[in-house]
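Dear H.,

Thanks for agreeing to be a second pair of eyes. The structure we're designing against is below in token form, covering all 297 positions.
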């Protein structure tokens, strides 16, 4: 049995879909307040659901009972649930889960973390600090582990909610738009996670994940312009303004989100040589995503 924590989230639900399509026994952790449509979808795919909450250690022990592998993609970053925060979900909640998994004899813990390029330092954030502490707990608990560190998700960055309004041919560019970033598709992260369950080469590894090639924001705009036949209206947010926003933020979630946009402006490229060594499936590009959302096939 595989327990997926974050099973009603965008990434967690895709992990569940892929695992159940492979005939794997999957249990999704859900809350009484979870989106009922997403819970129904999990059950329609053949997943079992169990009520629980990262803030409730007793419920986590129950959810982990009889489970061989835990996959956790839960985060407060995109949550609208009351009481969710970096502290309650990404930090203490995940530590509660690691402890529950260890206590119930789980053999393999697969943790979705964040790129090493966002390591603690002057440009760190509460989210990064939480994830690194959870990584240490995952490595120290005696279970086999796989830590996956994806870069920025294509579907999140090139989305109207993040300022990339492709339906209306408008885009907010963070920084000057020339810095390259190693974006990765959500589907590929889900595939890495699902394949880690039965791939012995993934056990005991911390694996940096990214897409097929780094890309700048302006290069991405040109892809969308070429495929749509439209010229995009661009608005630039200077790096200095993003840094000021990051320094002024007081709430941990606001600080973390501001830092994410700062990193988008700065850009960085990821060395995914270990991922290429351990896994062999083809990766999706930003152009693949653009074709999909522009309904070009």
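And this is the sequence the design step returned. I haven't edited it by hand at all.
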């Amino acid at each position: 049995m595989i327990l997926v924590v974050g099973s009603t989230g965008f990434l967690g639900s895709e992990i569940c879909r892929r695992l159940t399509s492979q005939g794997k026994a999957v249990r999704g952790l859900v809350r009484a307040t979870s989106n009922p449509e997403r819970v129904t979808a999990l059950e329609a795919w053949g997943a079992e659901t169990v009520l629980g909450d990262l803030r409730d250690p007793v419920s986590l022990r129950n959810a982990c009972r009889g489970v061989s592998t835990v996959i956790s993609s839960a985060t407060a970053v995109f949550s609208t649930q009351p009481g969710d925060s970096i502290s309650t979900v990404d930090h203490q909640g995940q530590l509660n889960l690691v402890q529950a998994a260890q206590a119930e004899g789980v053999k393999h813990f697969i943790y979705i973390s964040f790129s090493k390029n966002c390591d603690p330092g002057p440009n760190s954030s509460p989210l990064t600090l939480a994830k690194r502490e959870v990584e240490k707990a995952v490595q120290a608990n005696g279970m086999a582990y796989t830590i996956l560190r994806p870069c920025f998700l294509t579907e999140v960055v090139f989305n109207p909610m993040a300022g990339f309004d492709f339906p209306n041919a408008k885009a907010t560019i963070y920084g000057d738009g020339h810095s390259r970033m190693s974006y990765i598709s959500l589907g590929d992260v889900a595939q890495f996670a699902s394949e880690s369950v039965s791939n012995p080469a993934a056990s005991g590894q911390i694996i940096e994940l990214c897409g097929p090639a780094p890309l700048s924001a302006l290069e991405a705009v040109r892809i969308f312009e070429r495929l749509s036949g439209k010229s995009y209206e661009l608005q630039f947010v200077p790096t200095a303004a993003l840094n000021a926003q990051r320094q002024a933020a007081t709430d941990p979630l606001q600080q973390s989100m501001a830092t994410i946009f700062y990193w988008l402006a700065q850009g960085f490229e990821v060395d995914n040589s270990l991922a290429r060594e351990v896994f062999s499936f083809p990766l999706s590009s930003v152009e693949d995503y653009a074709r999909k959302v522009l309904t070009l096939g």
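Two observations from my side: The longest strand covers residues 144-150. The chain is about 45% helix and 15% strand.

Warmly,
E.
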